[in-house]
Write a structure and sequence with these properties.
- The protein is built from 9 helices and 12 strands.
- The protein has 285 residues and is an alpha/beta fold.
- It has a single domain, classed as NAD(P)-binding Rossmann-like Domain (Rossmann fold, 3-Layer(aba) Sandwich), CATH 3.40.50.
- The chain has a 6-stranded parallel β-sheet with strand order 2-1-3-4-5-10, with helices on both faces.
- The chain is globular, with a radius of gyration of 19 Å.
- The relative contact order is 0.15.
- GO terms for molecular function: dTDP-4-dehydrorhamnose reductase activity.
């Protein structure tokens, strides 16, 4: 087994590396400096120099939802690059894994989204991700496309870290309560993805932590855990006049993967607890 891990400096890439190091699995970790997955020549050269790759796990993505409204690069990275990597995987006979998002949905449903629900992204980010999913699944039958939501991990900036940073300098915070989904700990996402990959039951899956939360609920939980003494108020998405629209309700149903693996994914609160422990260990809290 020899794995190519793209986007390896991000939250999910970081946690995959931890798994592979622990299990002594051979891998090549790249970020855009080592391999630009949007560049055909780069890809060609890389695979000529690195033979015997059995799995390609693509953790690279364009995740700046607001900037994506005007930056065409979002389509290169989220739609075209995964399809190219699926084509390469097919050529070399490697298993391909890539990630998508709850933002492929419009948020108008009142119950958790399942894999078969029709996508209808309301932002360029959401639309580009949906296009990426489609391209991969149509290109190569040994692919996993894994949708997730509200990812947080130790290796990068995320909502939890933002809330903690805000709490250091403010006595009052207002957080939106009209965006509902589920926060997902990147360590759990990596672990359950790896278990899924072993099954070779290819296709489209949802992997998130268990439960449901608004951004307000998530912030409240984090702030209580760190003992913040300020005042937390509720706000609405429209108060912030952001360039990109967000789905109001985008909770994903992960029962397909849980049934396949015969295992429940931990609750998001457990993910936050372990994330905060990690921050403490790193001296960040």
């Amino acid at each position: 087994m020899k794995i190519l891990l793209t986007g390896s400096n991000g939250q999910l890439g970081h946690d995959f590396k931890k798994i592979f190091n622990k299990k002594n699995i051979e891998y090549i970790a790249t970020d855009y400096k080592e391999l630009d997955i949007t560049n055909d020549e780069d890809l060609k050269e890389f695979f000529q120099e690195n033979e015997g790759i059995t799995h390609i796990i693509n953790c690279a993505a364009y995740n700046d939802v607001d900037k994506a409204e005007t930056d065409k690069k979002v389509w290169l990275l989220n739609a075209e690059a995964p399809k190219k990597l699926a084509e390469v995987s097919k050529e070399i006979g490697a298993v391909f894994v890539t990630y998508s998002t709850d933002f492929v949905f419009d948020g108008k449903k009142n119950s958790p989204y399942v894999e078969d629900d029709r996508t209808n992204g309301i932002s360029e980010y959401g639309k580009s991700k949906a296009q990426g999913e489609k391209g991969v699944l149509e290109t190569y039958d040994k692919s996993f496309v894994i949708r997730t939501s509200w990812v947080f991990g130790i290796a990068n900036n995320n909502f939890n870290k933002q809330v903690i940073n805000w709490s250091k300098s403010r006595d009052e915070l207002n957080i939106v309560d009209d965006q509902v989904s589920v926060p997902t700990y990147s360590a759990d996402l990596a672990e359950f993805s790896w278990k899924l990959i072993q099954t070779e039951k290819f296709g489209l899956y949802h992997i998130t932590n268990d439960g449901i939360a608004s951004k307000y609920d998530q912030a409240k939980y984090v702030l209580e855990k760190i003992g913040w003494k300020g005042t937390l108020g509720k706000a609405k998405t429209d108060d912030f006049n952001l360039p990109a629209k967000r789905p109001a309700y985008s909770k994903l149903n992960s029962s397909k993967v849980e049934n396949l693996l015969g295992e429940k994914i931990p609750a998001w609160q457990s993910g936050v607890d372990r994330f905060l422990e990690e921050m403490k260990k790193n001296g960040e809290l």
